[in-house]
Amino acid sequence: MRNLSILIAGVGGQGTLLTSQVLGAAAMKAGYDVKMSEVHGMAQRGGSVVTYVRIGKNVNSPVIEKGGADILLCFEKLEALRWIDYAKEDGTVIVNDQRIDPMPVIIGSVKYPEGVIEKLSARFPNVLPVKALDAARELGNIKVLNIVMLGLMAKNTDIPVETWHEAIRETVKEKFVDLNIKAFDKGYQMAV
Amino acid sequence: MKKLMLGNEAVARGAYEAGVTVASAYPGTPSTEITEFIAKYDDIYAEWAPNEKVALEVAIGASFGGARAVCAMKHVGLNVAADPLFTVSYTGVNGGLVICVADDPGMHSSQNEQDSRNYALAAKVPMLEPSDSQECKDYMIKALEISEQFDTPVILRLTTRISHSSSIVELKDREAVPLKPYKKDFGKHVMMPAMARKRHVIVEERMKKLALYAEETELNKIVWGSTDIGVITSGISYQYSKEAFGDASFLKLGMIYPLPEKLIKEFASRVKTLYVIEELDPFIETFLKKIGVNCIGKEKLPVIGEYSAALLRGKLLEEDTAGDNENHGDVPARPPVLCPGCPHRGVFYTLKKNKLTVLGDIGCYTLGALPPLESMDTCVCMGASIGMAHGIEKARGSDFARKTVAVIGDSTFIHSGITGLIDIVYNKGTSTVIIVDNSTTGMTGHQDNPCTGITLKGELTRQVDLVKLCHAIGVERVRVCDPFDLDEFDRVVREETSSDEPSVIIAQRPCALLKSVKYGGLVRVNADLCRYCKVCMRLGCPAIVDTGEGITINDALCGGCNLCISVCRFNAFEKAGDSNA
Ligand code: SF4
Ligand code: SF4
């Protein structure tokens, strides 16, 4: 059982919270101790949202610190750049190749940085860009891009697929269970 | 059975297992979910009160009535509830009474960073502080026991990182606690001076007994490790300290008021270097200094913001740690914004256009202060907009009032705006108050409130009629208007601000995130018609994108509200396909 610190970053409304809940539930089922931390409130209105999930034999702090994340799971490029210092040197950075402009960019007071993926790859050996939005579109609902990403990430853990499915069934609203399981499987296969 | 639980959910579970039957609260991040989770238990009556003062009074009534009762609020809510708090300390309780208060170090979603531990000291009320979800549950149960054993209300203090972190909790069954008999008790329950003087003596005796209890209770525990470093800490700081100084010795305080003098002295005498690790104020440290125990605390650690293991290692061991967790270099910030389709967008667009001074309040609409809407001048506390509008008029004269409005949400108006409005009427003010009525309490995650006609338990109830209410307190000019009808809203704002009597505009349109809101159909830009005048950019809608060459709409974000269609003079916006919502 190895210790894993997973930082999930995204934009309010992209479903970071739900993702961490499924992840936490799956890890617990697999026998891990789990601590998670999330920030609500202001962040929900399209702001930057981050949740921390730490699993292991015995976890103290629910917070991940700079240089402490084994996996960075980012639903948007700029958010990957924002949290990049939190990844370990040999950490894995999974980033959804999607751009969502924050308000300062929209109103033209700053520019959205160019070449984000290249910048990330220059610093970290394991950067994995994914077209999760397209994958979610193919499934008929762009909202499940978060679970596609989770499926991708799941390959980095020793938690069996069936456990992930169970966690989804328990966490997601009933009418969305099938869709989310499909999204998870799609992500999981994309990782191969 | 074990379950991964949010701290707030575990607090609710504790209330359930300990046989609580009445809960009342006003929503406030990070405390809101406590009451939402409590409401899921059929055995507990749970409600949203109009404000925290009422919530505490309801809980006091239930406790006097013999039930175990809880109320919950964020730190600033305790300021509102401070009046009953200080006196219920004197009366004591009948059924156990616990007040949950959630502080917000780092101000993730608050207007200040106050340390509510100071209330325990000031109101002479014991306080417990859990450090993970299991303790959230256990301490809630313990707090109810202490409350009944010592005839005192007890405060359960949480912080954002406890309330909004999840960890594994062992569940037990609910204990049926019978309703205690209600007894009329003049000397204990009627706090007139003669009785209160006697009760104060009892309070002081109670605090002495509690101080002895603090020495014995398992809530305070020593975990011995190496005695080179000793750490006295509590709450989330315990977790950070464990991570930073794993092999040190710890005195972990679960009861943070009153503090155990002997236990602290004994622990201090057996370690070489003693650290006190606590976020915000030097609450524990001040006590150590008072009893003559030397320690290292705020001389090295900040009184501002959250801690982390890296911060502790950096400041105390002078290790070169990765450092400041808040600093993200020059990556463009992503501040929260009003949602696409948000009803408030029409309000602020109009206020900005009319160049009004806007005294603001607390809710989603506070975001109207940010660019590009930038049309809110102030935000102080719940309800402040109305009193401040009156004050600024009295300072600068009624001509200034012709260019001023107060903006307040429906839930905030009920919370503490009504009294301010009465002040305006009573004292001959002429302010214009805009109640932005979005039919919910948006910021904290869409709770119902007295204006929505639905209770926390999801039952239908009577709805506050804002128009009648304003009339009843003497406001004759009350207008109801849809803020998305931009021309009409603009006219109403001009008319009401220019009138020299008090007036209220109820800007009515439900929050775009409510399930009942169906805009249908996205909007797209017809490039042939767009003259790139950028007027639509003034709306601050996150779905409208300026590409540098023209305007486009991000169809992943557009809510289909049509507001951009109304502002565009060239009819460049048109309805396209299906909406995401
Ligand atoms: S939650 Fe509702 S009221 Fe709040 S910003 Fe979004 S649309 Fe507006
Ligand atoms: S783009 Fe227009 S229609 Fe769509 S949410 Fe924004 S203002 Fe409303």
Produce the secondary structure layout.
The complex is a heterodimer of chains A (192) and B (581).
Chain A: E1 4-11, H1 16-29, E2 33-38, E3 48-56, E4 69-74, H2 77-83, E5 87-96, H3 103-106, H4 116-123, E6 126-130, H5 132-138, H6 145-154, H7 161-171, H8 177-190
Parallel strand pairs in A: 1-4, 4-5, 5-6
Antiparallel strand pairs in A: 1-3, 2-3
Chain B: E1 2-6, H1 7-17, E2 22-25, H2 32-39, E3 45-48, H3 52-64, E4 69-74, H4 75-80, H5 82-91, E5 97-103, H6 117-123, E6 127-128, H7 133-150, E7 154-159, H8 160-163, E8 165-170, H9 186-189, H10 193-216, E9 220-223, E10 226-233, H11 235-244, E11 248-253, E12 255-257, H12 261-269, E13 273-277, H13 283-290, H14 309-316, H15 344-353, E14 357-359, H16 384-396, H17 398-401, E15 404-409, H18 410-416, H19 418-426, E16 432-437, H20 466-472, E17 477-481, H21 486-498, E18 503-508, E19 523-525, E20 544-546, E21 551-553, H22 563-567, E22 573-575
Parallel strand pairs in B: 2-3, 2-4, 4-5, 5-7, 6-7, 10-11, 10-13, 14-15, 15-16, 16-18, 17-18
Antiparallel strand pairs in B: 1-8, 6-12, 9-11, 19-22, 20-21
The complex binds iron/sulfur cluster (2 copies).
One iron/sulfur cluster (SF4) binds at residues 338-339, 342, 344, 364, 438, 442, 511-513 of chain B.
Please name the CATH architecture of chain A.
Answer: 3-Layer(aba) Sandwich
The end-to-end span of chain A amounts to: 22 Å
Please give the share of residues in helix of chain B.
25-40%
Principal-axes shape call of chain B: globular
Mean pLDDT of chain B: 95
The counted number of beta strands of chain A is: 6
Contiguous uncertain segments of 5+ residues of chain B: none
Biggest sheet, spatial arrangement of strands of chain A:
2-3-1-4-5-6
The amount of helix of chain A comes to 25-40%
What fraction strand of chain B?
Answer: 15-25%
